[in-house]
C-alpha cells in the first residue's frame, strides 16, 4: 500500500508538472526546444518510476517541476511522504532544493526549513536539526512553538536535559501559566535525568535540587520519589527513605517492584522486621504482585523455614497462579526433595525457567515495545512513563 501511494503521488506530480510546463509554454512557438525538453524530462521520470528507479525519478521530479508558489506545496508534501517512508536522504534533497530557491517568499522558506529540520531528526543528524530549529525560534513567530517542540525532541535525544527544560519553559511562557499534565511529567523526567547524573557523581546537593524541581513539576512522579528515597538512603537516613518510598504505591502501584529492594534494605538497616513484614503483607493484599509475594516468601524462609515458605507460596499460587511464583515454589521444594521427586521438580523448574526467559518483564502500553528492563522513556515510541511491568500469569 505504501509503494502504491508513492507511485500515485509521483505520477500525479509528473502529470501536474507536465501540465504546468505546457501551460507556461502555450504562448511560445509550438515544438520549441524548451517544451520538447520538458516533455522528455517528464517522460523519462515516468520511465524511471515504472522501472522502480525511485532515486532517478526523484531527480527528474526535482529538476523538472519548477518551484513556485503554485507547486511549493506539492514539493513540500512529496518530501514529507519520502520521510514517512523512511527515505530520509531523498526527503532532505527535496527540501534542500526548496531552500535553494531565492524566489520563494520568507514564510515558504521557513516552512521548508522546518521540514528539513524534521528530515534531519528522522535521519539522526541532530546537530543540523538543532541549528535550523534555533534559527526558526528566533526568526519565525508563526513556527516558533512548533520549532520549540522539535527542539525539545532534539535535546531529549542528545541527552541535553538542561536545554530541554529551558526549551519547554520558552514554549509555555506565552501560552498558559501552568504546564499541562503531559508537559509537567516530561519536565519532571528531565529533572530526574539530571538528578541521576548528580547521584552517580556523588553530588548529593545538586541531586536534591533536581529532585525538588522534579517534584515541583509533578509531585506524584514515581521516578522522582524513588530517586528521593534512594538519596535519603545514601545519606544514611533510612527512616526518611521509608516514608518517601511508601508514598509511591498510593498513586503508582505499577512501580511497586521498583521500590522493594530499597524498601527492604531501609527497614533492615533500622532493624524494623515486624514493620516490614506488616507492610509487605498489606501490599500483597491491596496490590498483589509476584515481586511482593516472592519477597514475603523469602522473609518467611529466613525467619521460619523453607517448608513454611513453600506452604505460604502454594496457598498464594492457588489464588493467583503465575510462572514466577511457580519457579520460586519449585526452588524451595527442590531443596527439601529427594530421589525421583527432586529430579521431577528440577526438570519442571528448568522448563519454567525456559518459559520465563522468553517472556518480557516490561511492555510499552503505547507501542508494544517489550523488554526485561524498565525504561522511563520508551526506546521505540519515545513516550515517557508508558513502559510498565507485565501483569498476569507471565508477569507480575
Percent of residues in helices = over 70%
Structural class: mainly alpha
User: How many angstroms separate the termini?
Assistant: 39 Å
Number of helix segments? 20
**Can you tell me the overall shape?**
elongated
Runs in which pLDDT lies below 50 for 5 or more consecutive residues are 27-31, 37-53
- Mind describing the biggest β-sheet? 3 strands, antiparallel
Summarize model confidence as the mean pLDDT. Answer: 84
Sheet-strand content, in percent, reads under 5%
Task: Give a structural overview.
By secondary structure, the chain is mostly helical. The chain contains 20 helices and three strands. Strands 2-1-3 form a three-stranded antiparallel β-sheet, with no helix packed on it. α1 runs antiparallel to α2. The longest helix has 23 residues. The protein starts with a helix and ends in a 7-residue tail after the last strand. About 6% of the residues have low confidence.
Chart the SSEs and their pairings.
Blueprint: H1 2-24, H2 33-50, H3 54-64, H4 72-84, H5 88-99, H6 106-123, H7 126-139, H8 144-158, H9 161-172, H10 181-200, H11 204-217, H12 222-234, H13 238-245, H14 248-251, H15 256-269, H16 273-286, H17 290-303, H18 306-319, H19 323-336, H20 339-357, E1 362-364, E2 370-371, E3 387-389
Antiparallel strand pairs: 1-2, 1-3
